[in-house]
Model the fold of this input.
Amino acid sequence: MNRCHHSPNSRSTAMRRLFLAAGLAAICVAGMAQTSVRQFPKNALRGILVVVGAPSITLDGKPDRLSPGARIRDMKNMLVMNGTLIGKTLVVNYTREAAGMVHEVWILTPAEAALPRKSAGQ
Done:
């Protein structure tokens, strides 16, 4: 009976190639994510956000509040806990919920911040 015998070297070489290809793919995807500009809702406004202490924030220097269940996304579109942002000044796009509280926030990349967007004062 014929059996296929693989030498240990050929198996480890194949695994190295697989890991190398996966690593290169991850680098390419990460590079594309950093250079792309996200699509925001048409009603999203631009502002300068400072988390004072959840749910208290300032938006464009005026006191405001985050809604219960508010979502803050970082430059990589990952959810961020508002407690980690206390005291930081951030350029953001945001939307409000029906009661007027800030509900969704996107921390902008420099490329996104360079694009024009209406603010609450306009």
